[in-house]
């Protein structure tokens, strides 16, 4: 059993995807471009030519997390940082908060193996794709089919808040991902259940409902975050419980605790950026400001390369786009120009390859950088 897990893990680590696959798949290349924009805005110290490798590793970590979500052998590689006896004291209801980092699904397996009843709160799309698998897997780990041990709540259901509150008042543990599920970002950026927080030198719109829940039910929040120091090591870092501060209003507590949780997670995300799945959707909740200064670039010459730090390229439905990363603003461009700009990412291009007016416009707007 252990050998089967190691073989599957190593195939993911060394296998799909690679640069060639991504560059030839418009959907994957578009995802890469948005991840690159997010990295450029929130972790500008990373060389933009390193963004592709971050994206590749991100996809591999995602596949590893799925492999390990119900594979008991993976627990042999798990190390807990912090007090793992804390769960024994959570008898009157509690909220475990976590992020889509590292082997983030292994926390479900960890709780089930410790026979800790919990309710998982996830988005409808995940329930439709994997809900039945979740239920059968974790109930089997509890050695029964009782819904009292493992339950799922659809986070997208209009009544999910009331159901979560009932679960807490029953003394149950809720497990929620603070950074949401893929596809939920637009709602977070437009509804009332959000607040603006500082994050990695920029800002983002974050859900504050977890703070509301904890405050209303008067239950502690237990922050846990996963990461991998190496392929052979899986970590779950358990921080001290956060008790609702009744000296604050519910609103102020909710904003403060949301800021605190993201600040705690940011050190892991900064150190292991390839392990945070939410880079795939961060642009939906981003609130960014232009970098205070950028190095001067050469604006005259006959040879140039693509400005990958500030621009990206993608295609949707046969149409081609140029993306300005700092604004997440896209511009429709013609397919031949798209191909020329794609070429200029990997090798210098000449003024002779372009119409003079287009060349001058690209140079003037910083899309191309003269090198000779």
Summarize this entry quickly.
With 372 residues, the chain is an alpha/beta fold. The protein has twelve helices and 16 strands.
**Average pLDDT, all residues:** 90
How many helices does DSSP assign? Answer: 12
Task: Give the helix level as a range of percent.
Answer: 25-40%
* Shape call: globular
Topology as a string of helices (H) and strands (E): HHHHEEHEHEHEHEEHEEHEEEEEHEHE
Strand arrangement, major sheet? 1-9-8-2-5-3-4
Task: Give the N-terminus to C-terminus distance in angstroms.
Answer: 58 Å
Highest-level CATH class of the largest domain: Alpha Beta
Structural description of this entry:
By secondary structure, this protein is an alpha/beta fold. It has two domains: 2-287, Glycerol-3-phosphate (1)-acyltransferase (3-Layer(aba) Sandwich), CATH 3.40.1130; 303-370. It has twelve helices and 16 strands. The strands form four sheets. Strands 1-9-8-2-5-3-4 form a seven-stranded mixed β-sheet, sandwiched between helices. It has a three-stranded antiparallel β-sheet with strand order 6-7-10. The chain has a three-stranded antiparallel β-sheet with strand order 15-11-16. Strand 13 (319-324) and strand 14 form a beta hairpin. The longest helix is centred in the C-terminal third of the chain and has 22 residues, at 250-271.
């Amino acid at each position: 059993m252990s050998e089967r897990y190691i073989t599957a893990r190593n195939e993911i680590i060394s296998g799909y995807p690679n640069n060639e696959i991504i560059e030839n798949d418009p959907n994957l290349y578009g995802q890469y471009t948005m991840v690159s924009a997010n990295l450029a805005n929130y972790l500008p110290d990373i060389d933009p030519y390193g963004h592709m490798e971050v994206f590749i590793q991100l996809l591999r970590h995602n596949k590893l997390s799925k492999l390990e979500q119900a594979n008991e052998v993976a627990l042999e590689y798990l190390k807990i940082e912090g007090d793992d006896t804390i769960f024994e004291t959570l008898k009157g209801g509690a909220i475990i908060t976590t992020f889509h980092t590292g082997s983030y699904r292994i926390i479900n397996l960890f709780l089930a193996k410790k026979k800790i009843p919990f309710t998982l709160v996830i988005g409808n799309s995940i329930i439709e794709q994997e809900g039945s698998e979740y239920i059968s897997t974790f109930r089997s780990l509890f050695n029964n089919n009782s819904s009292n041990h493992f339950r799922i709540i659809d986070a997208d259901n209009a009544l999910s808040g009331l159901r979560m509150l009932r679960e807490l008042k029953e003394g149950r543990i809720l497990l929620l991902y603070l950074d949401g599920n893929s596809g939920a970002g637009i709602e977070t950026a437009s509804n009332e259940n959000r607040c603006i927080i500082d994050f990695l030198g920029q800002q983002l719109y974050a859900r504050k409902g977890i703070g509301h829940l904890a405050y209303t039910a008067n239950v502690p929040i237990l922050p846990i975050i996963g990461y991998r120091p190496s392929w052979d090591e899986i970590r779950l870092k358990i921080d001290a419980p956060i008790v609702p501060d009744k000296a604050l209003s519910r609103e102020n507590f909710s904003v403060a605790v949301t800021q605190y949780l993201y600040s705690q997670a940011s050190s892991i995300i900064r150190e292991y950026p390839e392990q945070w799945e939410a880079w795939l959707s961060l642009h939906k909740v981003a609130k960014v400001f232009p970098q205070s200064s950028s190095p001067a670039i050469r604006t005259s010459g006959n040879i140039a390369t693509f400005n990958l730090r500030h621009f990206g390229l993608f295609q949707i439905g046969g149409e081609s786009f140029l993306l300005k990363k700092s604004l997440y603003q896209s511009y429709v461009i013609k397919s031949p120009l798209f191909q020329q700009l794609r070429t200029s990412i990997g090798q210098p291009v000449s003024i002779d390859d372009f119409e003079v007016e287009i060349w001058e416009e690209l140079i003037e707007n910083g899309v191309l950088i003269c090198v000779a």
